[in-house]
Amino acid sequence: MKKIKLIISLIMVLIMTFIIVACTSEKKVVLGEDFLKKAHTSVKEAYGENYLPRMPINEDVLAKVYGIPMNLVKEDIAEGPMMSAHVDTFIGLKVKEDKDAVNQVANALRSYHSELVNNSLQYPANMAKVKAAKVLVIENYVFFLMLGKINDKEGLTEEERLEFAQEQVQIGVKAIEDLVK
To answer: CB under 8 Å to 151, separation ≥6 — which residues?
Structure first.
């Protein structure tokens, strides 16, 4: 009888432990209504004078050029370069709270990025930045970051330029991710 009570007690402890672990591992991050604006501001501050996007990108362009299904987007902040010699772009989108919608929007930006890398003509100085661009998804927010300084040192290999560009894009990623912590 004592063995049965002990076994039942152990089973109950295991079940409770499992429930506690399962409940704590599924935390949903609460970002707040102004998260998109905070993310944009944080990215601009992180880059300082090296933040080059200054021209707003309207919803028609987001749909036609970037392929974003705007019917899935609740809010957007999008800026591109004022000069055609630059490629710097910030796109921040608050998407409907639906995993499929978020995936559709993120995939549209990934397709746009792939098209840029594989089929667009770029100034040689911009190519590393284009390749290093990143699509970042946090909950129902999707970001496209093609930002940062260009490494204008002479004699660098393509890999060294790409590594520098990836470090530059990571500045924006970190600025956004730090808001979630």
So the answer is: 128, 160, 161, 164, 165
Contact 106, 129 (CB under 8 A): no
CA–CA separation, 90 and 52 (whole Å):
9
Q: What pTM was estimated for this model as a whole? A: 0.82
How many alpha carbons lie under 13 Å from residue 99 in its C-beta half-sphere?
Answer: 0
For the sheet containing 73-80, what is the strand order? 55-56, 73-80, 89-95, 141-146, 134-138
Q: Is residue 109 within 8 Å of residue 92, measured between CB atoms? A: no
Residue 94, CA distances (Å) to 5, 50, 68, 98, 103 in order? 53, 25, 12, 11, 12
> Which secondary-structure segment (H or E) carries 110?
helix 99-119
Residues 83-128 pLDDT 10s: 888 899 999 999 999 999 999 999 999 999 999 999 988 888 899 9
* Paired residues of 135 in beta bridges: 144
Distance of CA 83 to the CA centre of its chain: 24
- C-alpha span between 109 and 148 (Å, rounded): 19
Contact 147, 87 (CB under 8 A): no
Of 33, 47, 68, which is closest to residue 143 (Cα–Cα)? 68
Among the listed residues 129, 141, 124, 131, the one whose alpha carbon sits nearest the alpha carbon of residue 177? 141
